Amino acid sequence: MTRPRFGSWLAIVLGAIYFIVPLIGTFEFSLRMRRGVYSFDAYAVVFGDPRFQATFLYSTFLAIITIILGTVLIVPTAYWIQLRLPKLRPVVEFITLLPLVIPAIVIVFGYLHLYNSSSFLPLTASSRTTDLLLAFSYVTLAMPYMYRAVDTGLRAIDVRSLTEAAQSLGAGWGRILFRVIFPNVRVAVLSGAFLTFAIVIGEFTMASLLDRPAFGPYLQLMGANRAYEPSALAIIAFAVTWACMGLIQLFGRGARTARR
Amino acid sequence: MRSLELENVEKAFGASFAVQRFDLAVERGEFISFLGPSGCGKTTTLRMVAGFELPTTGQIRIDGRDVTNLRPNQRNIGMVFQSYALFPNMTVADNVAFGLKVAKRPPHEVDSRVAEMLKVIKLPQHATRYPYQLSGGQQQRVALARALAIKPKLLLLDEPLSALDAKIRVSLREEIRSLQRSLGITTIYVTHDQEEALSMSDRIVVMNEGRVEQIGAPFDIYNYPRTRFVASFVGTLNILRGRVVDAASGRISIDDQPIVAARGMGGLQNGEVRSVALRPEAIVINGSNGANRMQGTIEEVSFLGSVIRIRVRFRDNVISLDAFNNPNASPPERGAGVTVSFTPEDVLVLEGAEAA
């Protein structure tokens, strides 16, 4: 009994060291901007940098657009697959997995080829339409996570009976989706939304190649030109991701206790 | 006026028929049960009435209006599901109010109708609770209130009591029946439980393999089953193989012992082999109970408390009968010879020839 327990503790300690030591190192380094003492100067510089605020706000805005587009696209799709086309489920699952297999750089080159300023649909001709294209590309990137989260949520409720009950009471598709299905997969949609947010905030390839002022390219720019600020930014980015994970946990647990 | 009519309705899934040549006319306020084993097409028929399935052929009319191709939300039908199907994100009151809000009734009317329905199902104090805070029986009562709140033309119930335990099942079926009577609403009730169907219905439609076997009042279905399937599915009838000796006088031979049937001999040929049914309560052991007497051997005796179940073998045929327990007389012995008797009126000759 003693040896397996020792072994598992050893694995946990090694894993923790692997993950935590670089983080502590980064955090410690980010505090060393002022010579000889620990200070939050690097954070002050980062938060005071107007480009930080602008890029973070831009990425947050795009994340919200992505979440809305993704939800509107994926919830009805997953719902319809579950209700009427269960045989298509493997096909749709395969399609939603593609963004994990195809590198972002390949996707973005495809976009540039299809939607460049001399194409039939010149989305890259203006910055507004490029923003839209960037949001679409984020929807694609977040699709594997969003689809799985929503599909799991839908499987937890009796979609068919709820739909038929609402139909027999006179409800049309819009009301069924927004009054019956959406509220019951709210927690799943939120999980998918936070994952999407975390992905969009840190994404570099798409934003950089489409030349949009997002947070990812800003992180890269700082990393290439500054010493302490990149460490502070890395810690901030971690904090944002963890906050998203924490919120998923919080809402997930809230739903479980409510059901009980 | 006819509340619901199904005319030559059929439903095929690919090459196989789930429902075949279904004809039914339901009077206003009638309580009809679809009874049969699983896969017999009863739920598919109900779903066609509700609009969730489209018939392959045939016509469905509600109050004389053809609804065959209408969507479910255009039919004004109340439906209760086996799985309750209450909306988990809404309170009891919101669930009941759902259909009224869809119909855009004014708020004061919605509130008073919800209060009225909750009173009818005896759950007015649970209005603000969520479905997961209710027991199965309470959830099903809410589902019933939700279906009735919209004052539907038809109430459809798809095995609504199957998920509940036995005691609640009995009390709830009495509640459903009395509610249905007081509201006078035409009701279709799908069940595989013959006791439920017999105790609740005005008429029963017995179904098997997508076909209607018999339509009739519970009394007729139980006492005068027309087919072998109905006889074996409804109640615990004894089914024997008999050879018609003289169709004109109703004489039949069972294991070479002659008996007489008082009805059901029309159109039979002498020498034909038919299924003959006998209700256990019609058979008397070692007594004189009518003209038919048969000699047999006691094969099994089961003591069930107030009742003793006795199995008697003739030659190839076996019957089961119940006798009341008499504390002053010991139960009959296995292997003993015995005479059973029954009247010619109790002999039911079933439709459909048997292989000789």
Description of the molecule:
The complex is a heterodimer of chains A (260) and B (356). Chain A has 260 residues and is mainly alpha-helical. Chain A has one domain (52-259): MetI-like (MetI-like fold), CATH 1.10.3720. Chain A has 12 helices and no strands. In chain A, helix 4 (89-101) packs across helix 6 (127-155) and helix 11 (215-225) packs antiparallel against helix 12 (229-259). Chain B has helices at residues 42-50, 92-102, 107-120, 136-149, 166-183, 194-200, 218-223, 228-233, and strands spanning 2-13, 16-27, 31-35, 57-62, 65-66, 77-80, 154-158, 186-191, 203-208, 211-216, 238-246, 251-254, 257-260, 273-278, 284-285, 292-303, 307-313, 318-324, 337-342, 348-353. In chain B, the strands form 4 sheets. Chain B has a 6-stranded mixed sheet, sandwiched between helices. In chain B, a hairpin with a 2-residue loop joins strand 9 and strand 10. In chain B, helix 2 packs across helix 3 (107-120) and helix 2 packs parallel to helix 4 (136-149).
Record the SSE blueprint.
The complex is a heterodimer of chains A (260) and B (356).
Chain A: H1 2-30, H2 41-48, H3 50-83, H4 89-101, H5 104-115, H6 127-155, H7 159-168, H8 173-184, H9 186-202, H10 205-209, H11 215-225, H12 229-259
Helix pairs in contact in A: 1-12, 2-12, 3-6, 3-9, 4-6, 6-9, 7-8, 9-12, 11-12
Chain B: E1 2-13, E2 16-27, E3 31-35, H1 42-50, E4 57-62, E5 65-66, E6 77-80, H2 92-102, H3 107-120, H4 136-149, E7 154-158, H5 166-183, E8 186-191, H6 194-200, E9 203-208, E10 211-216, H7 218-223, H8 228-233, E11 238-246, E12 251-254, E13 257-260, E14 273-278, E15 284-285, E16 292-303, E17 307-313, E18 318-324, E19 337-342, E20 348-353
Helix pairs in contact in B: 2-3, 2-4, 3-4
